[in-house]
Automatic annotation (TrEMBL):
The lineage of its organism: Bacteria, Pseudomonadati, Pseudomonadota, Alphaproteobacteria, Hyphomicrobiales. The chain crosses the membrane at residues 21-40, 46-71, 115-131, 143-166, 172-191, 212-237, 243-264, 276-297. The keyword Membrane applies. The gene is chlG. One of its GO terms (molecular function) is chlorophyll synthetase activity. It is a multi-pass membrane protein. Its EC number is 2.5.1.62. It is an enzyme of class 2 (transferase). It is found in: Membrane. Pfam families: UbiA. Keywords: Cell membrane, Chlorophyll biosynthesis, Membrane, Transferase, Transmembrane, Transmembrane helix. The keyword Cell membrane applies. This is Chlorophyll synthase ChlG. It comes from Rhodoplanes tepidamans.
């Protein structure tokens, strides 16, 4: 590779495409759930909340996307040559430099938002690199890779939103529901694997559809999504939040109805179920966050 090609600056449009803004929504929504669940008004905290949203989406998740595309550049050159790195629109080693730069910026901002936020961000960044980078490459196994994505996209983001508002460790009920919705998100990540089964087989990625077959993986994804929500319903009822528990129950029943159609044709309906079923799932998250808000910040 020539020095000229290596030193060439990537176009801003190519960098933005590499950062994948469409992937920022799930953690930003989870962060909003954390903010709501704290039970505290925005008031003078709104600049910190804005900083937290930037941290969760445009920095942390964007970092994970750049890291993933850099270490997948050889596979993408075969399967998706139009992507910014294999197409040459992000030339030379710019993909790696951008991954390092975004990691540093994420840590710098997180360090200004408190110790608990910094710790969650640091762990999330470690998982982002381990997910894609050899020799670990958690993404090679559907159990580990999906777990890393689920906990960072949902649990850490929710925790961060609450910690930013509270200025410390959130109430145990907040942490519990953040963990439960992270566990359910493992099933959501499995839904995403149905669109790349052929490529995963060719490249040796042991996604759950590859490991267990299409039908078994589809059933597993639905069960993994549903069981934590059942636990949430039980907890909300035990915390004297019957209305919120009823709403989450109705959302879960609606997911079940959609799941029946998905299970009848997993490959054809995976994207459809991911769009509609996950929408109901995240509405349940916000409902649960509102239920927690009544508890307010811990004493």
């Amino acid at each position: 590779m020539s020095v000229t090609t290596t030193m060439q600056m990537p176009a801003p449009s190519a960098v933005l495409e590499l950062l994948k803004p469409i992937t920022w929504f799930p953690p930003m929504w989870a962060f909003a759930c954390g903010v709501v669940s704290s039970g505290l008004p925005l008031g003078p905290r709104w600049p910190v909340v804005v900083a937290g949203i930037v941290l969760c989406g445009p920095l942390l998740v964007a970092t994970s996307q750049v890291v993933n595309d850099w270490f997948d550049r050889h596979v993408d050159a075969i399967n998706e040559p139009h992507r910014p790195i294999p197409s040459g629109r992000i030339p030379g080693r710019w993909g790696l430099w951008l991954a390092i730069l975004w990691t540093a910026m994420s840590l710098a901002l997180a360090s200004q938002l408190g110790g608990w936020v910094f710790g969650a961000a640091a762990v999330g960044l470690v998982l982002a690199w381990l997910y894609s980078a050899p020799p670990v490459r958690l993404k090679q196994n559907g159990w580990w890779g999906n777990a890393a994505c689920a906990i960072t996209y949902e649990g850490f983001a929710w925790f961060t939103g609450a910690a930013v508002m509270i200025g410390g460790l959130p109430d145990w009920r907040i942490v519990t529901l953040a963990f439960l919705y992270s566990a359910g998100a493992h099933g959501i990540m499995t839904l995403n694997d149905f669109k790349s089964i052929e490529g995963d087989i060719r490249t040796g990625v042991r996604s759950l559809p590859v490991q267990f077959g299409v039908d078994a993986a589809a059933r597993l994804a639905c069960v993994v999504m549903a069981l934590p929500q059942l636990a949430v319903i039980v907890l909300l009822a035990s915390w004297d939040r019957p209305v919120h528990a009823a709403i989450v129950t109705l959302l879960l029943v609606a997911q079940g109805a959609l799941a029946m159609r998905f299970l009848a044709a997993p490959i054809a309906k995976a994207t459809w179920f991911s769009g509609l079923g996950v929408t109901l799932y995240v509405l349940g998250m916000m409902t649960s966050a509102v239920a927690l808000a009544a508890f307010g910040a811990p004493a």
